[in-house]
Amino acid sequence: MIGEGDSKEAKIYLIIAFIIILAVFFAVVFSGNQFKQAYVHHDFLDEKWLENLDERDSVSYFFGLEKWGSLIYELDCNYTTYLIITTIKTIVMMDEKELKDEIEETVEKALKLGITLDNNTKISGERMLKNGHKTMYIVYNGNDTSKNSYEQVRVIGEVWNCGNSGTSIISLGFSQISDNSNNNSKINTTYWEKIIGDEGGTFGTKGFQREDGLIYNVVCH
């Protein structure tokens, strides 16, 4: 017969075994849940493009099993221009529908910044980045009403899944293309081209066909 002392000892061994199994489980889960923040390599940032280190942000949920982080690259000139790269790691990677929803939500954030978008100019499609990922994007023309002068802008929302890092990437690019504050009605797409340009010239040939486009060169794995 098993005595009372033996029974208690068996329970203690079971508890210890359970704790060990639980520790091993979480070790395996967390080791496979390394979070890699997508970014633009400094080789593609010229002297005017800088990361705003004060705006770096990251959050984790469910004991670190789900995470997100964002980086903001800004252009140091009279034209308000920036690129936000957000990386999301979830327990189950987003599917195509969720990615499309993220594009819409990402671009809608621009509306909260005093931006009005022209739905008639909306362009959507897919392209390949230099890292081999196929993305989905939407592009709008719009106007910035947050300044004293009425400025024309362009906005892109672009998303993709990175199977290598187990993350979903959301890019929001914004560029002012006019400068009416100086009574200059000429359209300047130079900075916009830098954000969205690629080798294939997806968004146009002259100026847009380039190897150093920022989103095109995002590093995510």
Q: From the helix content, strand content and strand pairing, which structural class follows? A: alpha+beta
Q: How many helices?
A: 3
As a percent range, the share of helical residues equals 10-25%
Strand count: 10
Q: How do the SSEs run, as a string of H and E?
A: HEEEEEHEEEEHE
Taking all residues together, what is the mean pLDDT?
A: 84
Query: What is the general shape?
Result: elongated
Rg, alpha carbons: 24 Å
Model description:
The protein is an alpha+beta fold and 221 residues long. The protein is 22% helix and 35% strand. The protein contains three helices and ten strands, in the order αβββββαββββαβ. Strands 2, 3, 4, 5, 6, 7, 8 and 9 form an eight-stranded antiparallel sheet that branches. Strand 8 and strand 9 (167-176) form a beta hairpin. The longest helix has 28 residues, at 4-31. The protein is elongated and about 90 Å long. The model has no long low-confidence stretch (mean pLDDT 84).
Please describe the topology of this protein.
Blueprint: H1 4-31, E1 39-40, E2 49-51, E3 57-61, E4 66-75, E5 81-89, H2 96-108, E6 115-128, E7 134-144, E8 151-162, E9 167-176, H3 190-196, E10 218-219
Antiparallel strand pairs: 1-10, 2-4, 3-4, 4-5, 5-9, 6-7, 7-8, 8-9
Précis, in short:
Helix content is 22%, strand content 35%. It has 221 residues and is α+β, with helices and mostly antiparallel strands.
Features:
221 residues, alpha+beta, two-stranded antiparallel ribbon, 35% strand
